[in-house]
Amino acid sequence: MTNAATGGLLVNEITVTFGGLTALDNVSLSVEPGEIVGVIGPNGAGKTTLFNVVCGFVRPDSGTMTYRGRQLRGHQPHDLAKVGIARTLQGVGLFAGMTVVENVMAGAQATMRADFASALFGLWRSSREEARLRKRALDLLEELRIAQWARRYPATLPYAIQKRTSLARALISGPTLVLLDEPASGLSEGELEELGKLIGNLRAKMGVLLVEHHMDLVMSICDRLVVLNFGRVIASGTPAEVQANPEVTTAYLGQDVSHVDSQAIHADP
Question: Looking at domain 4-84+175-264, which of 3.40.50.300, 3.40.50.12710, 2.30.29.170, 3.30.450.30 is its CATH number?
Answer without folding.
Answer: 3.40.50.300
